[in-house]
Protein backbone atom coordinates (compact mmCIF):
# COMPACT_ATOMS: atom_id res chain seq x y z
CA UNK A 1 0.00 0.00 0.00
CA UNK A 2 1.43 3.41 -0.94
CA UNK A 3 2.43 5.77 1.87
CA UNK A 4 -0.24 8.30 0.84
CA UNK A 5 -2.99 5.68 1.31
CA UNK A 6 -1.65 4.69 4.73
CA UNK A 7 -1.61 8.36 5.80
CA UNK A 8 -5.21 8.76 4.54
CA UNK A 9 -6.27 5.57 6.35
CA UNK A 10 -4.73 6.78 9.63
CA UNK A 11 -6.52 10.12 9.30
CA UNK A 12 -9.83 8.39 8.59
CA UNK A 13 -9.31 6.07 11.54
CA UNK A 14 -8.41 8.98 13.84
CA UNK A 15 -11.45 10.91 12.65
CA UNK A 16 -13.74 7.92 13.22
CA UNK A 17 -12.25 7.38 16.68
CA UNK A 18 -12.84 11.04 17.56
CA UNK A 19 -16.44 10.87 16.39
CA UNK A 20 -16.96 7.69 18.40
CA UNK A 21 -15.46 9.29 21.52
CA UNK A 22 -17.70 12.35 21.20
CA UNK A 23 -20.75 10.15 20.67
CA UNK A 24 -19.89 8.03 23.69
CA UNK A 25 -19.38 11.14 25.83
CA UNK A 26 -22.82 12.42 24.87
CA UNK A 27 -24.48 9.09 25.57
CA UNK A 28 -22.68 8.59 28.88
CA UNK A 29 -23.05 12.14 30.16
CA UNK A 30 -25.33 12.39 33.17
CA UNK A 31 -28.77 13.67 32.37
CA UNK A 32 -29.74 17.00 33.85
CA UNK A 33 -31.43 16.48 37.18
CA UNK A 34 -35.16 16.91 36.82
CA UNK A 35 -36.55 18.48 39.95
CA UNK A 36 -39.68 17.30 41.70
CA UNK A 37 -42.51 19.64 42.62
CA UNK A 38 -41.34 19.50 46.24
CA UNK A 39 -37.81 20.48 45.20
CA UNK A 40 -39.19 23.34 43.12
CA UNK A 41 -41.19 24.49 46.15
CA UNK A 42 -38.04 24.33 48.28
CA UNK A 43 -36.05 26.44 45.81
CA UNK A 44 -38.91 28.95 45.56
CA UNK A 45 -39.10 29.20 49.35
CA UNK A 46 -35.33 29.69 49.64
CA UNK A 47 -35.38 32.33 46.92
CA UNK A 48 -38.18 34.18 48.71
CA UNK A 49 -35.99 34.16 51.85
CA UNK A 50 -33.08 35.67 49.91
CA UNK A 51 -31.12 32.41 49.77
CA UNK A 52 -29.63 31.72 46.38
CA UNK A 53 -27.09 29.45 44.78
CA UNK A 54 -26.97 26.52 42.40
CA UNK A 55 -30.31 24.73 42.65
CA UNK A 56 -28.71 21.27 42.67
CA UNK A 57 -26.54 22.24 45.64
CA UNK A 58 -29.41 23.76 47.57
CA UNK A 59 -31.60 20.73 46.91
CA UNK A 60 -28.79 18.42 47.96
CA UNK A 61 -28.39 20.43 51.18
CA UNK A 62 -32.13 20.16 51.83
CA UNK A 63 -32.15 16.40 51.37
CA UNK A 64 -29.05 16.12 53.60
CA UNK A 65 -30.93 18.08 56.28
CA UNK A 66 -33.82 15.62 56.08
CA UNK A 67 -31.43 12.69 56.38
CA UNK A 68 -29.69 14.29 59.38
CA UNK A 69 -32.99 14.88 61.15
CA UNK A 70 -34.17 11.36 60.32
CA UNK A 71 -30.98 10.15 62.03
CA UNK A 72 -31.87 12.10 65.15
CA UNK A 73 -30.21 15.49 64.71
CA UNK A 74 -32.13 18.29 66.38
CA UNK A 75 -33.40 20.91 63.88
CA UNK A 76 -31.96 23.73 66.02
CA UNK A 77 -28.52 22.11 66.01
CA UNK A 78 -28.83 21.52 62.28
CA UNK A 79 -29.69 25.18 61.71
CA UNK A 80 -26.66 26.26 63.76
CA UNK A 81 -24.43 23.92 61.74
CA UNK A 82 -25.89 25.15 58.44
CA UNK A 83 -25.37 28.77 59.52
CA UNK A 84 -21.76 28.06 60.47
CA UNK A 85 -20.93 26.14 57.26
CA UNK A 86 -22.82 28.31 54.77
CA UNK A 87 -20.93 31.45 55.65
CA UNK A 88 -23.16 33.92 53.85
CA UNK A 89 -26.48 33.20 55.59
CA UNK A 90 -28.00 34.92 58.57
CA UNK A 91 -29.25 32.86 61.50
CA UNK A 92 -32.82 33.56 60.36
CA UNK A 93 -32.05 32.31 56.83
CA UNK A 94 -30.45 29.14 58.20
CA UNK A 95 -33.57 28.55 60.32
CA UNK A 96 -35.76 29.12 57.27
CA UNK A 97 -33.69 26.71 55.16
CA UNK A 98 -34.14 23.97 57.76
CA UNK A 99 -37.85 24.71 58.24
CA UNK A 100 -38.42 24.81 54.48
CA UNK A 101 -36.61 21.48 54.10
CA UNK A 102 -38.90 20.00 56.74
CA UNK A 103 -41.98 21.45 55.04
CA UNK A 104 -41.04 20.77 51.41
CA UNK A 105 -38.62 17.85 51.30
CA UNK A 106 -38.69 15.69 54.40
CA UNK A 107 -41.15 12.78 54.50
CA UNK A 108 -44.12 13.73 56.64
CA UNK A 109 -43.08 17.40 56.51
TrEMBL record:
Domain DUF732: from-to ranges: 38-107
Matches recorded under Pfam families: DUF732
UniProt cross-references to PROSITE patterns, sorted A to Z: TAT
Signal peptide interval: 1-34
Keywords assigned by UniProt, alphabetized: Signal
Name the UniProt record assigns to this protein: DUF732 domain-containing protein
Species per Swiss-Prot/TrEMBL record: Mycolicibacterium hodleri
Amino acid sequence: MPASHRKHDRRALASAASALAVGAAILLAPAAHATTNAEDDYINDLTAAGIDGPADSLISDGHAMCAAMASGMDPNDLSATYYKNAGSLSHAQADLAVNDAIKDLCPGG
